[in-house]
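Reopening this ticket.

The earlier resolution said the output was attached, but the attachment link was broken on my side. Pasting everything inline this time so it's all in one place.
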Amino acid sequence: MVPAFRTVLVGRPRSRFQWALDAFVALLVLIGTFGAYALDVFQVSGGVVVLPGAATLVGFAVAVGVGARRSGLLVAWVSLFAAYLGFQAEWAFLGLSSHSLVGKLAFLFDPVGLVVLDVASLVIGTIGFTTGSIGRLSIDRLRGRTVSQ
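Inline output:
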């Protein structure tokens, strides 16, 4: 059975608490990524950074979990974008110390940079979500076979 597009995009019907929990997880990913880069837990090796590796890995892992929970593709995209935004915020506010607040905000909300992060979130988030969904489906099918045999 193929799920409806709306179900894939926003997930199965859920309560407001579950939606708030998804928003909290995305916020936690943003703050956690910011903190990890600020405390040098995650490091950028240098050169031109288009997509930070550690933020991509964190966002991908969250997207896999979202797919396994069947929370919806939109939640996977937002969670991955939150990881990227956490990196950008750390770079803007802590890495560009010689710039004014306006300059830091301009860097953070640069349209070209945000579009790159959006496209990466769509592509990598979809791959992560699909991986989690297929994993969940495989586990459910294996459990069904084990129980019936």
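Reporter confirms the inline version is readable. The radius of gyration is 18 Å. Residues 14-148 form one domain.
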